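Structure (tokenized):
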């Protein structure tokens, strides 16, 4: 049973980034499955295509976004989007510097 009922954007972002890193580092397909499951939820629950990320899951009947005024910081969301693009062993900044798309 979950301890925390308030579903915030940042644990989902951290989970996606961690799953991508573990998938690459360990080569375990279970982490690819978790990465896709988490990203399957984030656009529906946390991403407002016109105004940015919501801080609280929007399907939550009690989602009043009370922990924050306005939109949350982009730190966790940015990492969830960028970390899967670079080698887990490189770190984010060197990995982005050397990124070939």
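Design, position by position:
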């Amino acid at each position: 049973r979950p301890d925390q009922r308030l579903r915030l954007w940042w644990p989902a972002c951290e989970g996606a980034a961690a799953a991508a890193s573990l998938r690459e580092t360990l080569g375990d397909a279970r982490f690819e499955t978790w990465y896709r499951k988490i990203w399957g939820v984030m656009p529906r629950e946390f991403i407002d295509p016109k105004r940015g990320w919501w801080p609280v899951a929007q399907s939550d009947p009690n989602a009043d976004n009370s922990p924050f005024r306005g939109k949350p910081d982009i730190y966790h969301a940015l990492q969830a989007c960028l970390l899967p693009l670079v080698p887990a062993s490189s770190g984010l900044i060197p990995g982005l510097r050397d990124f070939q798309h």
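Reviewer-requested clarification: The chain has four helices and two strands. Strands lie at 47-48, 52-53.
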